[in-house]
Design brief:
Layout: H1 2-21, E1 24-25, H2 32-39, E2 42-49, E3 54-58, E4 66-67, H3 74-83, E5 93-94, E6 110-111, H4 112-118, H5 121-142, E7 165-166, H6 167-178, H7 186-196, E8 197-200, E9 205-214, E10 219-228, E11 233-242, H8 250-266
Parallel strand pairs: 1-3
Antiparallel strand pairs: 2-3, 2-11, 4-7, 5-6, 8-9, 9-10, 10-11
Helix pairs in contact: 2-8, 3-5, 3-7
């Protein structure tokens, strides 16, 4: 039994090592270190070229560490809302509860599309409460979303570190979403993908979501999604961290560094 367990541990370690080594270092293409230094952040970046089947990596030793998904969970929350009929279509309005919050543009009735783009926490807390613990837990476990933990308050679990997900798991989730392989209806998946559309860039159509988590010692920021044109499809999962809680470049760095690196790869 002991020998079998040792063999299992070795195989797990070896598989992890292969996964990390089967990766092209982004430092070959760009001075990525300087981008993070300029924004006073540390970063982890995983990009997958779907057509060429090439993984591009930075700080791959961090790929399997789990963190709070923060507002990137709005993608999953949107899927559940469409699947369960809480939201019918992208124009469905979520009624504001009249509580004043910051930023000011949250203080209004919001369509699901605008709530997603504004990253309106209150609107998605409402959707989670409507779904309820049993339904949310079922979908998290069925989809193997991170640690699938929604214990505690149903409108807080993705904000308070109960739910956690790794960079690798974020990438796998995005690929399944794009390829229609999640256990949701085709309609719910299509509607969610449409909600994720952010803009058309010179590189292609961008579908993405930001996230921001942290504590009194460190800020964590996500930017995940994909960019596609007629010939290319690139998935990306970007995670940054800063110990400077007053870092004015932090919010923008999530997207700016991502697109700067993608620009080098796609052009």
């Amino acid at each position: 039994m002991r020998n079998s367990f040792c063999l299992f541990l070795f195989c797990a370690f070896f598989s992890s090592l292969i996964a990390q080594n089967n990766c092209t270092d982004l430092k070959q293409f760009t001075s990525i270190d300087s981008l993070y230094k300029a924004s006073n952040v540390e970063g982890t970046l995983l990009i997958f070229d779907s057509e060429q089947k090439i993984r591009y990596c930075y700080n791959s030793s961090n790929f399997n560490v789990r963190y709070s998904p923060a507002s990137t969970f709005k993608i999953f929350n949107t899927l559940v809302a469409f699947e369960t009929g809480i939201i019918k279509d992208s124009s469905t309005s979520i009624s504001w509860d009249k509580k004043i919050r910051k930023p000011d543009y949250w203080n209004q009735n919001l369509s699901i599309k605008r709530a997603f783009r504004y990253s309106a926490v209150w609107a998605y807390q409402y959707l989670a409460r409507q779904a309820g613990y049993s339904s949310m837990s079922k979908w998290l476990k069925t989809c193997n979303y991170g640690n699938a933990n929604c214990e505690g308050a149903i409108d807080q679990f993705w904000l308070n570190d109960s739910l956690q997900i790794s960079v690798e798991e974020q990438l796998n989730f995005l690929i399944q979403l794009k390829e229609n392989k999640l256990p949701f209806s085709e309609q719910a998946i299509r509607q969610t993908r449409e909600i994720m559309f952010e803009e058309t860039t010179s590189l292609g159509n961008l579908y993405a979501k930001t996230g921001w988590a942290g504590n009194d010692k460190q800020d964590l920021g996500w930017y995940i999604g994909w960019i596609e044109n007629e010939k290319q499809l690139y998935y990306f999962v970007h995670l940054i961290a800063s110990n400077d809680l007053n870092n004015s470049k932090f919010a923008g760095a999530r997207k700016e560094i991502s697109l700067s690196i993608l620009d080098k790869l796609i052009r």
